[in-house]
């Protein structure tokens, strides 16, 4: 484009020269500004990521704390249940031991009572044997005495009858020794 006037032409040339000099600087400035914007965006993204990471860390920490507390509660509850069961079993064991001891004492007493009863019965049996023996000997002695008396009487009766028969046989003239 031809210059319109001389004065104006110099000015235009200077402006053109400025533009030519400023062009690379403008591109650099624009690129720097674009890089600056990119860096700002990247910084903002990193800050957001850092904030998200902190929130995630806080959430994880809170969740782990909650789980830990829940586990502590469960462990405490389980421990209490076990302690209650142990106490219950100890009480049952003590009861069973007392019952066992009472049963053993009762068994010992029953055996002692049985032994006393057996001893008493054996004593009674011995006394009864002696009494029966005494009664039997007495009865046998009495029977023997009665038999001896009966035998003596039968002897007398037999002798009396033999004498009577002998006399009758002799009355008929018979010899009783021959018959």
UniProtKB/TrEMBL annotation:
Bias kind Basic residues: ranges: 1-13
InterPro entries xref list: DRC12-like (IPR033585)
Coiled coil: 36-99
Ranges annotated as biased composition (Basic and acidic residues): 17-26
Keywords: Cell projection, Cilium, Coiled coil, Cytoplasm, Cytoskeleton, Flagellum
Region named Disordered: 1-26
Top-level lineage group: Eukaryota
Compartment(s): Cytoplasm, Cytoskeleton, Flagellum axoneme
Family note: Belongs to the DRC12 family.
Function recorded in the entry: Component of the nexin-dynein regulatory complex (N-DRC), a key regulator of ciliary/flagellar motility which maintains the alignment and integrity of the distal axoneme and regulates microtubule sliding in motile axonemes.
Subunit structure: Component of the nexin-dynein regulatory complex (N-DRC).
Protein name: Dynein regulatory complex protein 12
Organism: Grus japonensis
């Amino acid at each position: 484009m031809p210059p319109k006037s001389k004065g104006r032409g110099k000015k235009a040339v200077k402006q053109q020269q400025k533009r030519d000099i400023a062009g690379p600087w403008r591109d650099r400035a624009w690129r720097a500004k674009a890089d600056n914007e990119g860096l700002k965006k990247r910084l903002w993204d990193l800050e957001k990521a850092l904030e998200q990471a902190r929130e995630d860390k806080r959430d994880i920490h809170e969740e782990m704390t909650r789980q830990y507390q829940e586990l502590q509660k469960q462990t405490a509850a389980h421990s209490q249940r076990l302690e209650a069961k142990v106490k219950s079993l100890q009480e049952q064991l003590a009861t069973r031991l007392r019952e066992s001891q009472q049963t053993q004492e009762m068994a010992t007493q029953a055996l002692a009572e049985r032994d006393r009863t057996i001893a008493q019965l054996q004593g009674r049996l011995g006394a009864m044997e002696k009494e029966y023996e005494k009664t039997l000997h007495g009865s046998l002695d009495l029977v023997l005495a009665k038999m001896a008396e009966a035998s003596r009487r039968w002897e007398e009766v037999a002798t009396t009858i033999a004498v009577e028969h002998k006399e009758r046989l002799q009355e008929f003239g018979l010899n009783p020794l021959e018959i």
